[in-house]
Amino acid sequence: MANVLQLRDVSVVRSGTTILDDVSWSVADGERWVILGRNGAGKSTLLQVASTQLHASSGRVDVLGETIGQSDVFELRPRIGFATSTLARRLPQNETVLNAVVTAAFAVTGRWNEDYEELDIRRARRVLAEWGLTDLADRNFGTLSDGEQKRVQIARSVMTDPELLLLDEPAASLDLGAREELIGLLGGYASSAAAPAIVMVTHHVEEIPVGFTHGLLIADGRIVSAGPLDEAITEASLESTFGLPVELSVSDGRFAARARRA
Ligand SMILES: Nc1ncnc2c1ncn2[C@@H]1O[C@H](COP(=O)(O)OP(=O)(O)OP(=O)(O)O)[C@@H](O)[C@H]1O
């Protein structure tokens, strides 16, 4: 399978601090990756590099067959879906949910004078249905709950039919019901052969949807382990990543972890 993302010896240094340290990693078409690591480990920075929003200080980054620094990132970006709370904050609060999603077709966050095709509207309604948002299409984005807003962010990021989907902590701050609903939807999406390659950052192994195939653990900007989920996410690798003894279990494809009692 072709690589949709390839990092070779990538480092990111900001304000004199090394945030990513010699990272080599690739994501092939059809793979669904989860990235885990402590606060400040470099997870979001890695996603920003993958999204082309941040340039590596050294090393080589290839995204969707294009080498960053040698190609036009403005042509590349519409092919990448990226859902982060930072982008979500830019969505106008008084925009309807339908508009918040359909505007992704033009890579803008507010609906002004763009001439939307009936095709775009139809696609937006289909995406809203896929993410359980049909009944909220006419509500203002700012009136939605956190869980509903998270689903709108993802719906927006898949509106353009991306070839690579990047999700930064999509389940953060959700209650149990909203989290489980989102993980179920993500699992269904990830299991579809038509879905793009996916990379999702999360803090908890409990949030890994069924259907995800690979894991990457990162600590202090360096990869601790990377590969198929059951090889990359083990008690030993979690212990190295989080710095505490961990008890890990897997049931029906879902992971659970807690500190090992002495
Ligand atoms: N512009 C910057 N200048 C200096 N340091 C930065 C800059 N941006 C980020 N950092 C630092 O880089 C490190 C990695 O940040 P990053 O956001 O990638 O971590 P993360 O793993 O996503 O963390 P979290 O789980 O808390 O979201 C952090 O220590 C952060 O303070």
UniProtKB/TrEMBL annotation:
This is ABC transporter ATP-binding protein. GO terms for cellular component: membrane. It comes from Mycetocola reblochoni. Transmembrane segments: none annotated. Pfam families: ABC_tran. Residues 5-245 form the ABC transporter domain. InterPro entries: AAA+_ATPase, ABC_transporter-like_ATP-bd, ABC_transpr_CbiO/EcfA_su, P-loop_NTPase. One of its GO terms (molecular function) is transmembrane transporter activity. Keywords: ATP-binding, Nucleotide-binding, Transport. SMART domains: AAA.
